[in-house]
Amino acid sequence: MLTADLVRARVKGADIAPSLVDPGDAEVRDLAERVFTGLRDGAAAGARLGEAVADIEEQVADLASAKLARGLLRIGQDRCETAVGAEIEPAELRLAAFLAAAARGPLGLEPDDPLGRPTAAAILAEVGAPHGLDADQAAEALYADLPAERRLSGFDVPDAEWLVHRYNLALVQALLLSATGITLTFDEPEMPRMRQLVRWIKFHQLLHSAQREGDRLRITLDGPVSLFGPSTRYGLQLARFLPALVLQPGPWRLDATILWTRARHRKQLSLTHDSGLRSHYRDHGAYRTRTQEQFAAQFAEKGKGFELVEGEAPLAVGDRDLVFPDFTLRRGEREVHLEILGYWRAEGLRERLEVLDRRGPHNLLLAASRRLRGDKAGEDPPEHPRLLSFAEVLPLAKILAAAEAVLAGAPS
User: Fold this and answer.
1) Which residues neighbour 185 within 8 Å (Cβ) at sequence distance 6 or greater?
2) 163: closest CA among 253, 71, 265, 236?
3) 390 in Cβ contact with 369 (< 8 Å)
4) Which residues pair with 347 in a beta bridge?
5) 114 cis-preceded (ω within 30 degrees of 0)
6) What pLDDT score does 362 carry?
7) Gyration radius from the chain CA atoms
8) Which of 62, 131, 215, 393 is most enclosed, with most CB atoms within 10 A?
9) Are 308 and 327 a contacting pair, CB within 8 Å?
């Protein structure tokens, strides 16, 4: 992920646009090749991460596009695998060295110190000896666990072009970290692809709503700035969702309100499927969340009386709104749907429950994790027969009881 100082964007009036780069541009290719080659060769040689990064930074320091180079380098660093290049735990060695130095009193600068004081090298030789290390080896191992001192053991980037496409995506992700709200618009979308996309939204536990306008589908996502407590974590979840959107074949459009600079000026960001972004996610569906996996496993063992299937089609709420349930509990031809909410706010939940009471569907159950409340005040979910709250694990018994009540026509 790019830090704020590495974001490159163009501002014109009320609009903001990420300064995307052309993967085919010769200068961009050269920069990406320098970063790619430096980190790849560093990993092959087992070099220290700090040394490999410093070598690349020295090469690009005087270039006009140094900020772009540093951004590419940051993306590359995120794909590096590192390991501690020491056989002994550095923290253990540091403790031994500090204790030994404290016990021996002030240290001398030279081996022939007139006051007979030991040098740092002597202390290091002393604490390293039990581990088969001389003074130089002990000195190298002393801080081998610091990020810059760790040894490169792998570099998970296929080529320089991949690095450029990942950089472009990261520019947009960095802007979305300060979004107040995002609207996704799809013209004549394919429902299987929309189910896939909504599963990604649910996997990242994002606050969302969906509306149908003729052949157009509009999905609204709350931005991290619209939340108070967990906004940083939520913002990262939103940023990680973006590559799933880019997987969609189109046509799609993203519109977001961004708070720009420390003055928090409101700027409008717009992107479409023609923006040239390329996802690094594999296009083979979306993953289940841990909560979904645990519920399905519990149901397979104890969910008697119902068949559990994946949510197959969106449910209409009134004339325009849509809900994409996670699961359907089926008994014969009768069904009860379950939607597991991601982040939520008490006010929004109350409004949604009122709509469900008035307009249905009346065979929909909602589940909200108290851990994912988005309100600053930390208010608990409102009480309602078709809303089940939980901490970490969905309450299977309560869900089955609520499903039975729905099928029995109990008032809701």
Assistant:
1) 216, 217, 218, 252, 253, 255
2) 71
3) yes
4) none
5) no
6) 87
7) 28
8) 131
9) yes
> Do 109 and 119 meet the contact criterion of CB atoms below 8 Å apart?
yes
| Mean pLDDT value across residues 13-31 | 95
Q: Which residue has the higher pLDDT, 185 or 193?
A: 185
Secondary structure (H, E, C), 230-274: CHHHHHHHHHHHHHHHHCCCCCEEEEEEEEECCCCEEEEEEEECC
pLDDT band at 411 (very low <50, low <70, confident <90, very high): very low
pTM for this structure?
Answer: 0.77
φ/ψ of residue 105, rounded to 5 = 85, -170
User: Nearest Cα to 127, choosing from 146, 152, 161, 104?
Assistant: 104
Bridge partners, 268 (sequence order): 15, 257
Q: Is the peptide bond before 361 cis (omega within 30 degrees of 0)?
A: yes
Gap between the Cα atoms of 373 and 3, Å rounded: 27
Cα–Cα distance measured from residue 355 to residue 363, given in angstroms and rounded to the nearest whole number: 13
Whole-angstrom CA distances from 160 to 23, 24, 32, 44, 265 are 9, 11, 5, 16, 35
User: Rounded to 5 degrees, what angle do the CA atoms 191, 192, 196 make?
Assistant: 110
Residue 411 CA to residue 362 CA, distance in Å, equals 10
Q: What gap in Å lies between CA 56 and CA 36, rounded to an integer?
A: 10
The secondary structure of 181-207, three-state, reads EEEEEEECCCHHHHHHHHHHHHHCCCC
d(CA 89, CA 82): 15
Tell me the C-alpha distance between 309 and 328, whole Å: 5
